[in-house]
Each structure stands twice: as C-alpha cells, then as structure tokens.
Amino acid sequence: MSVTGPRLQPTIFERSRPGRGGGKIPHAPKDALARVPAEHLRATPPALPELNEPELVRHYVNLSQLNYAVDTGFYPLGSCTMKWNPKLNEWAARLPGFAGLHPLAPDALAQGTLQLLWELEQILCEVSGMRAVSLQPAAGAHGELTGILMVRAYHHARGDHGRNEVVVPDSAHGTNPATATMAGMRTVSVPTAPDGGVDVAAFRAVLGPQTAAIMITNPSTMGLFESRIEELLEAVHAVGALAYMDGANLNAILGRFKPGEAGFDVMHINTHKTFSTPHGGGGPGAGPVGVGPALLPYLPAPRVLREADGRFRLERAGERPTSIGRLRSFIGSSGVLVRAYAYLRTHGASGLREVTDDAVLAANYLKARIAASGAYDIPFEGPCKHEFIASAASLKKKTGVRTLDVAKRLLDHGFHAPTIYFPLTIDEAMLIEPTETESIETLDAFADALVAIAEEAEREPDVVTSAPHTAPVRRLDEAGAARNPNLRWRGMTGELAPCPD
Amino acid sequence: MAYGPHTDADRARMLETIGAASIDDLFADIPAALRASELRLDPPEPELELAARLQGLAARNRTDLASFLGAGAYRHFSPAAVDQILLRGEWYTAYTPYQPEVSQGTLQSIYEYESLISELLDLDVVSASHYDGAAATAEAALMACRATRRERVLVSRAVHPHYRATMETYFAGSGLRLDEIPLVADGPGAGTTDLAALEALLADEAAPVAGVVLAQPSFYGLLEPMSESGRLAHAAGALFVAVVEPVSLGVLAPPGAYGADIAAGEGQPLGIPLQYGGPYLGILGCTDALVRQLPGRLVGMTTDVDGKRAFVMTLQAREQHIRREKAASNICTNQALLALAASVWLATLGPHGLRDVAAIGAARASELEAALGAIGVERLHAGAYLNEFVIDVPDARAVHTRLLDRGVLAGLVLADAVPDDPSVADGLLVCATETTTSADIVAFAGALAAELGR
C-alpha cells in the first residue's frame, strides 16, 4: 500500500471486522418497525462489510490508484474521445441547487435546471443542425434505440408497416446492429469500399421499400469523412427510408459539418465523448438525440418547453400523443448535462471550432509521425479526421508480435492502449484518437513508444508478447473467468483465491 | 481555447510534419455543398463568468422547502467520505476497464458492487449496472421473455408509472405484449395488486406469460403480496420479477427470500444525489440460471499468469461488441461511477447503519401519519407501508400548489402522475426518510391544517 509495498488490495469484505464503523446515522427507535407485518421483514440482515472511516477511505483510495485515468495519463482510445474532463464541470454539478433538486419537483421550483436544459437543447441543435433534441437518453446506445424507435413510429404513422430493415456498414459499432434488433428490426450489413468509405453501390443494392433506416457513423470508425455521403443520403431518401447518424465521432466535425443540414434525419450525441463529461470507469454517459422535421412529433416525453412569459416547464403526461413515450424515468441525466452545458459555454462558437481543428490536427500529426517511422501499416493514406487506423499486420508477419501485444507493452511505457481489433474490418487494427487536449510533447512520446515497441518486437519479441511487466497484475486468465464465473463474494464458501497481499 | 495545449508554434510544427499548408486543408474531404453554416453560439466564456452564471442558475432552483416528495427518488444522508472518494480523478476520469491490467481499481470496485447488491437482493448475480430503475425493469421484462421464449409480460398497476411507460416503449419495438394487473379496489388490501386478477390473467393459455412484475414497496408505498404473486407466476411457468427500493432491503424481506427470479430497481437512494433525475443507477440481478440472459457488463474474479488474484469483465459473449445483432441488449455505457457511489455509501454505513436508515424512515413516516391524522387527514389505503403512503386531500392539486408558498413540498400530486387512476384523484403521495425532521413534520401539518381550515 501507499507508494511502496504491494499494490493489490483485499476485498472490502476481507477488510471487514464485526463491530467497526458507526457514528454516521443515529439509531432508530426500537419500535420503528412495529407496525410492519413480520412476513414482510427481513429475517437475516444483509452481510454488508463493517469498516471505520480510515479503513474505508484507504480501501477506496488505494483501489483508485490501480486505475489508469485521464487525470494521470494519455488515452489514445479511438472512437472514445478521452479528452480532458474540466474541474469546473465537477464543481458545477455539485452546486446544491442542482444536486439537491428532486426530479418530480414542481416546475416553479426547478426553473434554474429547466432553463439550463432548454438552453443546452438550443446549443445542441445549433451544433448538430437538427431541429430539436431530446435530452432523455442515458447513453449513446440508449440514444440509438430512441432514434430507431422514432423511425419506426414515423413509418407506422404513415401507414407504412413493411419497413423492418436497418442497413449498417460492416465497420459500425456493435451497438448499431444490437439496437436494430431491440427495435424489432433486422440488420443488413454492407461491406466497406476499398477506400474505407461507404460503398454506395452496395447500399443501393439492398435499399428498398423494406428499408426503415440506415445507420452511419460519420466520420467513420476508420476516422474518414464519408465523402460520398450526399449521394448515399439521396439514395436512402429516394426509397422512403431515413438516415441515422451515430455521433460517436462528432469531435471531428464541430463547426465544420452539421449532420442536420446535410440531410440526416436523426443522430445521437455522446456527451461523455465530445462534450467532456467524465467516463466514470464505464459510465454515466448521456446520449441526447437530435431530430430533423420528420421525426419531431415522435421525440420522447417529456420535453422542456419555454412559455411565452419566459418561464420553463416540462411537458405533462400525455400532452403530445405522437411521442414514442419514455425511455427511462424522470427527465434525463441532468447532472451529466450540467457538465456538458458548462463545457459548451466555456468554448462557445470559436472554441468548439478550435476543438475540432486541434483534434484533427493532432490526429494527422500522430499519423504522420507513425507513418514516417514505417513501423506500422497505415491502411488509409490522406488526411484523417480526429482518429486514424494503424495496423500491426506486417509487424505480426515479421515478428509474431500482434496488436494485442503492442497494446499491452504500451502500458509499460505509461500509456493506455488504443482501441484494438476495431473496426472488425481491418486486420490487427489499432484505432488511435489523441483528442485536442494532449500536448505535442505527449503525442511525440506516444509515437516514440510505439516505434520503440516495434523495434523491440524484432529484437526481443518475448518481452513484448509477455507484457505488461510493470502493471499491478500481468495478463489475466479471461477464459477461466468465463468458464467458471465467480461474479460475487461469498464469504462463507471459502472457495476464493486468497488475496495476495 | 480553454484546456487546449497548442501554441501557434506547435500548430505550425504539426502542419509541417503533416505536409499540409493549413488546418483547412485537413477538411478538404468534406464536400463543399455539405460544409457547415457558421456556428451561431455565444463567444467563449471565461471560467470566472461561467462559474457565476452556473451559480445563478443553481440558485434559481428551490431546494429549501420542507420536502415530503419521494415517488421513486429519495433524499438520504450521504456521509462526507462518499463524495470525497468520488472526487478522485482516478475513478471518475477512468475509461471502461477494457485493459484490465491497468483498471483493477474499477474492476474490483464493480465486483464488490455486484457482491454488495447481491447481498441486499439475496440473489446470485447482479450486473455491473444499468441506466436507471425504469430501464433496468424494462430489461428485466425482456430477459423474462428470452428465458421463457414467451411473449407476454404482466405488470402491476402499482409499479411506478414511469417504469410502466418505459416498459411500453421498450416493448413497442420488440412486438411483445405488456398487460397490466389491476389493483384491489377497496377493503384492507385496497391499492395492492389484485391476486385474483393476476391468477385470471395467468390462466389465458393462448397467451402464456413470460414474467410477472410487482414492486416492493409499490409506487403507492404499500407492501405487496410478493410471496403469493411469485407462487402464482411460477405455477403458470412464468418468472417473477421484483422491482425493489434498495434502502428498504435493510429491513424488508429481499427478493431471494420470496422466490423472485429477477430483481430490478433504482439505486439512487444509496447515497446518490437527486440531481433532477440522474445520473442514477439501474440495479439488475437474477438467479444463476438466468445469468446468460442478463444484459450489460459483468465483472468476475480470476487470476493473472502469476496466479495473483485479479478481476476482469467476463461472459462478454452476451454483449453487443461481440454478438452485434444477436446480443442480449444494445447496452454499452453503464453507470459505473454511480455503482461505486452506492458501494461506498453501503460500506460506510454498514449493515447496522443501513438498517437504521430504513427504520428511521419508517419511524418518521409513522410520526407524519400521526401528525396528519391529528388534523383529520387520513391515509387513502389501509394496508401496511414502510415509509411512503398516500393521503386523501380534497382538491389535492390546488392545496399542493398553495403549500409551496408556505414552504412545504407536500409530496406528489397523483392526479398528475397517474391521471388514469381515478381512485387516487385526491391523493398526495408523501414520504419520510432519515433526513425528515420533526420540525418539517410540524410545519407540514400546520400548513395543511391552515389550508384546509382545520
């Protein structure tokens, strides 16, 4: 523990000693539960751990130090946009007026948050070129489901019940096809063109009266702007289908391309990517969904409205019968949205454009440095947007060292690994996204590390294939974890591996 | 640009390395016809001014009233240590633990969360988290359909209206059928799920039922006949889904004790701020038999190549990034940081503290019931409750509005929340927790007596 000594921690259950803790909550009166029938009461208390505050805090602080984080280093994670998470935003979300507001508080008590949400919607409309935005979805995939359910409602409202296919390129995020299934649609996958863009001919071949929507990530998951997007959108609309844009890569196009203006009918925005809300070790996110005029009537309820007198209110239950309804309880992840709002106001119009310019500049710089080294394959030449693909395919042929090994060895150099083996269409892919908040010194150090690893692969491949060597643990038995799942602590069974510390 | 590191010299050097004349050259691939119109937004705002703007907006919210509002989101005390831990950047600025060697903190914390909530639920497995209670409940219903290969779910009308609405939305896409179980109209069981109606709904052989969904406590705060409902569900080959409020499980029988196969619920009461609706914590747990139908991330214990104990995301073959259109759900991002908050809160309070939180809430609710009874305001239902109940107030909506001016937030107006249930048209749903003070209760009773002229 601390800066020296073993790093791994016992579980909180192993730290527990009966009788520790207390002093936080007064004791309940003895008869507090006397009126609750015995049949409803718990027979044995839950086996929760008992710790005093110092033990508890050390447990979580020591655990936290086993994590890589934006606050400690560079995450070149393609498609994830691991930019800086501003401290102002954390402060703002915790302001008692925001943090303590009940979600069912009458509108008169909630004017501050309602105004913030209403303004945020206007800002997101301007950035996306969409007509309106729902702030309800809790994450990107939740936004996708919202979008495709609205598409479904649109077709049904026109009496068009035969559209049950969603067309996605094979380079799409896995959430796209999974969303189609959840919305009761069939996924039709189309191959990517050799230049990395959408294959419009392949799309045309599968579009028809059965097509509900296409889902396109633009820039694509290869970091390339879809230059044939105009042609594709025309083809989609010509068959009566709608176009969904996966906004995961919005950081590449702020102020440069507005999907709504270009003709997309619906898109989601990942606030935890583009607008700096923290990833939190896997969440929370927020996935606002923007729509053009076609889908406006179907937005989830409730929306935030502004009255003629300037006051704000939530839509009432049933006020807009065309709505697809609710995707979750209450209004949305307002605490996340406060952070996104702060970020957007910090940057304003000129700042957002600079965000994209610098993100794209940094990605092209890193790409040029790696390309110049010749250490890795760069499948797509020419300018990329905010991310690019490198591949260890040649390196693997030469040395047996795979992308996975390179990724693990990067950890020893103090860098998080890039996104690997995605998109699925590229052999030994590394998807690298530096973001706009990393300095040129960091970018250089990362490029140097990648090159050094390729050199090491030729010299001492075993060192690379057995990496990481300096992390708290080495490579894990993932197959064993899946074969004999141990998904919870069972203090009484004694079947667990003892804690190494 | 705020937060950006690049000087003009840096940019020039980068462009030179790239071999581009200008940054605009890097955007030449966007067809001219599709280039964005000017961004019409305010100029950048320095932190000094933005901080003042944010404080001003926060101050426009009113959180100073004596509040009796619950209805699915509850104010609880959170010891100072909880937020201090959450403020560590190593937690909140970390990514999803796809590189387990440098993510053992997050992974172990999720494993501990899964374990802690499993203890509360008395079930075998708990997912790493879902969006919120409503989405978790909808996913639970979909799980039941996948597991039984049946296409119809029954949900009690005493389940939170937002949860029922969310289930409807999720079901609309899937072609599955959602039917509501009515409530007992009057007598001692008034407002609880009608078991005779449930039995009749289950008896329709043409439409076999995949799952039966009840909430404990119910939306109206009442304690439901969970054991009997579970038995009826199982007798018809259906799974039993319990929607739970986790703090109540410090004192109430857990889902595992009354035979629930799946439990879903809102984790917000476990020390997570109200925050006008989120981010919250969707709890989703089940028996071992259903684990492969469980959507979302799972963390398990394993070892590294040296035999050291370690934690890793597992059973990923259920998930969208592997299975794509055949995945159990499309969920990707979850609520890891809120799961951490819940874990820290539970570990800080411990088993005795959790029991005290739940029991003090019940004691305060008794006090509230007595104070309101003393001014002639009675509960609408006769059944047992824990810390939330419906009171019968003539002209409830108008009284509720006028009480705001007297500094009292008198719970939830049920005529607005469940407009399709005339039996609660004059109802206010009120709750008490350990944060409710006797002074709040006196203020409420006094203000209500004045409004009603009693």
Q: What descriptors fit this protein?
A:
heterodimer; A: alpha/beta; Aspartate Aminotransferase, domain 2; Aspartate Aminotransferase, domain 1; seven-stranded mixed sheet; three-stranded antiparallel sheet; disordered C terminus; B: 454 residues; 2 domains; 14 helices
Question: Could you walk me through the main structural features you see in this protein, from its secondary elements to its overall organization?
Answer:
The complex is a heterodimer of chains A (501) and B (454). Chain A is α/β, with parallel strands linked by helices. Chain A has 3 domains: 12-64, no CATH class; 109-344, 3-Layer(aba) Sandwich (Aspartate Aminotransferase, domain 2); 348-480, Aspartate Aminotransferase, domain 1 (Alpha-Beta Complex). Chain A is built from 16 helices and 12 strands. In chain A, the strands form 3 sheets. In chain A, strands 1-7-6-5-4-2-3 form a 7-stranded mixed sheet, sandwiched between helices. A 3-stranded antiparallel sheet of chain A has the order 10-12-11. In chain A, strand 2, helix 7 (175-182) and strand 3 (186-190) form a beta-alpha-beta unit. In chain A, helix 3 (87-93) packs antiparallel against helix 11 (334-373). The longest helix of chain A is centred in the C-terminal third of the chain and has 40 residues, at 334-373. Chain A is globular, with a radius of gyration of 25 Å. Chain A starts with 11 loop residues before the first helix and ends in an 18-residue tail after the last helix. The model of chain A is unreliable at 492-501 (pLDDT under 50). With 454 residues, chain B is of the alpha/beta class. Chain B folds into 2 domains: 66-76 and 351-452, Alpha-Beta Complex (Aspartate Aminotransferase, domain 1); 81-344, Aspartate Aminotransferase, domain 2. In chain B, 38% of the residues lie in helices and 13% in strands. Chain B has 14 helices and 14 strands. Chain B has helices at residues 8-18, 47-60, 80-86, 89-92, 104-121, 133-148, 161-174, 195-202, 226-235, 320-323, 336-374, 396-405, 414-417, 438-452, and strands at residues 66-67, 125-126, 152-156, 177-181, 211-216, 239-244, 262-266, 282-286, 299-303, 309-313, 388-392, 408-409, 412-413, 427-431. In chain B, strands 2-8-7-6-5-3-4 form a 7-stranded mixed sheet, sandwiched between helices. Chain B has a 3-stranded antiparallel sheet with strand order 11-14-13. In chain B, strands 1-12 form a two-stranded parallel ribbon. In chain B, helix 5 runs parallel beside helix 11 (336-374) and helix 11 packs across helix 14. The longest helix of chain B is centred in the C-terminal third of the chain and has 39 residues, at 336-374. Chain B starts with 7 loop residues before the first helix and ends with a helix. Classes of the chains: A alpha/beta (501), B alpha/beta (454). At the A-B interface, helix 2, helix 3, helix 4, helix 5 and helix 6 of A face helix 1, helix 2, helix 3, helix 4 and helix 5 of B.
